[in-house]
Here is the input.
Amino acid sequence: MKRFAVLGLGNFGSHLARSLAQKGAEVLAVDNDEQAVLNIKDSVTQAVVANALDKKALLALDIDKFDCVTVSLGEKVDASILIAMFLKKVGVEEILVKAISEDHAEALQNVGATLVVFPERDMAHKIADSLLTPNLIDFIPVTEGQSIVEMKPPSECFGKTLAELMLRNRFGLQVLAVRTEEPSWDTISRRMKSGALIVPDGNFRIEENHVLIIMGDNKNIEKFRKLT
Amino acid sequence: MKRFAVLGLGNFGSHLARSLAQKGAEVLAVDNDEQAVLNIKDSVTQAVVANALDKKALLALDIDKFDCVTVSLGEKVDASILIAMFLKKVGVEEILVKAISEDHAEALQNVGATLVVFPERDMAHKIADSLLTPNLIDFIPVTEGQSIVEMKPPSECFGKTLAELMLRNRFGLQVLAVRTEEPSWDTISRRMKSGALIVPDGNFRIEENHVLIIMGDNKNIEKFRKLT
Ligand SMILES: Nc1ncnc2c1ncn2[C@@H]1O[C@H](COP(=O)(O)OP(=O)(O)OP(=O)(O)O)[C@@H](O)[C@H]1O
Ligand SMILES: Nc1ncnc2c1ncn2[C@@H]1O[C@H](COP(=O)(O)OP(=O)(O)OP(=O)(O)O)[C@@H](O)[C@H]1O
Here is the structure.
């Protein structure tokens, strides 16, 4: 099992630490604010009050033996860069750092952070994509120019079989799967319950309430969508 | 084309406004900080200095005629809740609000926000999922208990064809597609270039550098993964 250390327990760090621990991972949580450490200690393997800039303290916690160390210190740009460099030096393989600006992100990549997260920017981009595709419920980029998308079928497809529609010949699109029941958000398990999903054959008949999971060229997907 | 208004131009709001405008949407950007408005005016359709709590000012901008209004005012919890209520009252269909805590998120949902975003929490959960699946490069939840995942093939698959491996019979898994070239991050277009993707038939031979896109029951995926 992978061993994680999370340095800095603001919103991002604490949610990450809890989420990893909840899924059964071993998590060391570190913050120099005692209250932050107290708030999380029952949800993680080990919670320690320490200054993440204190190399001796980190080595005393065997930081170099962790598979993945996350640095999420908020506004402390210099601190996070220095700590990322130190972690790289002592051989930590996965160094995840939360950035607070583009320049910060670039500097972190330069000093060896393996994954730089800028939640406000990253979520803004994902959301812009989904807001702009009103009947593409979920947009998953696959290959430059190609995508796997979910979409409601254009009305001219209702009641027709896949064999009749000949989407591959007419549009170069492949229907990978069809959701025959509406997705819904389960607030308890915090998962998307996507209803029923089936892999259709040529005789499968498309209905109005179905959601198609289609793969193909972006241009072809757009052409198909314009039939709506 | 959908018309968007973004109230509050911090990191999230400004990235969202730019991202939407870049993709061709009509975007009105609003902030009461003149510098924030000046910084963005060349990247959006219209940028206005105004107090988002000023209902007259919003109505003068025809806020009720926008398809989607985003509220991202940072620490101003009360303000965002009041504005969300007002937007609902004047009939805006999509009200997206950035939350800064769980309680804030809940309150916003109660007053009618249609999409509540809490970037630090939402990204932390997504990242926790991907950190915990070391050879599942991308984990997309599909149906309760089922998933579409990307994974490196277990070594016993190398050099064998899909027909020989009989994954559907032995594991109940369907190989939807195979990446035959490594994904890489294009810093300019900011897209994942996923290399080449093909939809395999039974004669397709799996190689060590391939990435399989597999669909099936979570338990079966885990069984298959344990072969590694
Ligand atoms: N040198 C340090 N050593 C250990 N912890 C630190 C150090 N400097 C800051 N911290 C902690 O890092 C955390 C940073 O949280 P803060 O909310 O400021 O930022 P963040 O994590 O970027 O924000 P968010 O809450 O949006 O995730 C705080 O809990 C703070 O106590
Ligand atoms: N009443 C208001 N009317 C218009 N703009 C406001 C109002 N109150 C705050 N703002 C603006 O909202 C923006 C909030 O940005 P801030 O960085 O504080 O938070 P945020 O958007 O949550 O954070 P992030 O930068 O992490 O996205 C600021 O640019 C601020 O000027």
Chain B touches chain A through 55 residues (CB under 8 Å). Chain B is about 35% helix and 25% strand.
